[in-house]
Amino acid sequence: MTRIGIILGSTRDGRNGEPIAKWVEAIAARREDAEFELLDLLDYPLPARSEEWASAVESFDGFVIVAPEYDGRTSGVLQNAIDAVQAEWSGKAVGFVSYGWFGGAGAAKYLRRVVRELRMIDVPLHLELALNID
């Protein structure tokens, strides 16, 4: 069965991304053609647990990244998680749920460039949620 990881891309206290990621997971769980698992970056402090993170990334067929926007890009912790592994991302599908003042459009645009360099296949449409950033 297809396995999709839902990556929660913020580790800040009181983060808006946590309820968003849990909402995405609840909606995804209704599907019967794939398995979904929430990957909270709080559970993978890098670089200390980079081997565990690499194994996690390798074990999924694709990802939904829940990404905050800070200054036209995404969080440093998410960028670090992406940079911590390389080959494990290649050939996997990725979609985005972004959030921020203008729906996190800048974060999604930035992340598309990053994932294409890693040879990921990005889903053209994404969900933008306009709200105060965390």
Written account of the structure:
With 134 residues, this protein is α/β, with parallel strands linked by helices. It has one domain (2-130): Rossmann fold (3-Layer(aba) Sandwich), CATH 3.40.50.360. It is 31% helix and 26% strand. It has helices at 17-28, 50-58, 76-83, 105-117; strands at residues 2-8, 34-40, 62-68, 93-100, 121-122, 127-130. Strands 1, 2, 3, 4, 5 and 6 form a 6-stranded parallel β-sheet that branches. β3, α3 and β4 (93-100) form a beta-alpha-beta unit. The radius of gyration is 14 Å and the shape is globular.
The averaged pLDDT comes out at 94
Which percent range fits the helix content? Answer: 25-40%
How would you classify the quaternary structure? single chain
Quick one: overall form?
Answer: globular
Q: Please state the CA-atom Rg, rounded to the nearest Å.
A: 14 Å
Level-1 CATH class name: Alpha Beta
pLDDT < 50 runs, ≥5 residues: none
Tell me the domain tally.
1
Structural class label: alpha/beta
Proper CATH architecture: 3-Layer(aba) Sandwich
- Reading the helices and strands in chain order gives EHEHEHEHEE
What's the CATH H-level homologous superfamily? Flavodoxin domain
CATH topology name: Rossmann fold
Kindly estimate the percentage of residues that lie in beta strands according to DSSP. Answer: 25-35%
Q: How many beta-strand runs? A: 6
Largest sheet: 6 strands, parallel
Terminal CA distance: 34 Å
Q: Number of helical runs?
A: 4
